[in-house]
Design a protein that fits this description.
The chain has about 160 residues and is an alpha/beta fold. Helix content is about 50%, strand content about 20%.
């Protein structure tokens, strides 16, 4: 059985400098969604922002008045979207704080590009229904993240960065 390629419409909103670049982001998301066998046309937004904006979003939607590294806002489709077959399925929004990612990259000893890729794929998995309420699901999710990153030639040594157990 042939795998149907995924068409990914990626909208990048950069409130800060984008150190990765639109072409690389598009390539990564195309590959990740293909590997996740998400067939069909999908659309999502990636917003690169600062700590002040992500803090406001974190406070408003999670009740945590502090900056964070990544937030995901899954789109809750209604029956109308399912009826519009020619339109891509909107997955939702991923918001990444570039200043927080910069600090984490330094702390974890890798490049900003690697940290941004890690956070973006983490956000994507949340949009696709993944969550990590306990250690077992956390391990499964970060193992999947590492696998997806390896598929785009990004190496992230998550066991040493995020020790569990």
């Amino acid at each position: 059985m042939a795998v149907v390629p995924t068409a990914v419409e990626l909208c990048i909103q950069a409130a800060v400098d984008d150190p990765v670049g639109e072409a690389r982001w598009q390539s990564w998301f195309d590959q990740w969604l293909l590997e996740l066998q998400s067939a069909g046309a999908v659309e999502l937004t990636l917003r690169l922002t600062d700590d002040a904006e992500i803090r406001r979003l974190n406070a408003r939607f999670r009740g945590v008045d502090a900056p964070t590294d990544v937030l995901s806002f899954e789109f809750e489709a209604d029956d109308t979207q399912a009826l519009i077959a020619e339109e891509p399925l909107y997955l939702g929004d991923i918001v990444v704080s570039v200043p927080t990612a910069t600090r984490q990259a330094r702390e974890f000893g890798h490049t900003l590009e690697v940290e941004l890729a890690w956070l973006a794929v983490h956000g994507l998995l949340h949009l696709l229904g993944w969550d990590h309420p306990d250690e077992q699901s956390w391990r499964a999710m970060v193992t999947q993240q590492a696998r997806l990153l390896k598929g785009v030639n990004v190496v992230y040594d998550w066991p040493s960065v995020y020790p569990v157990g």
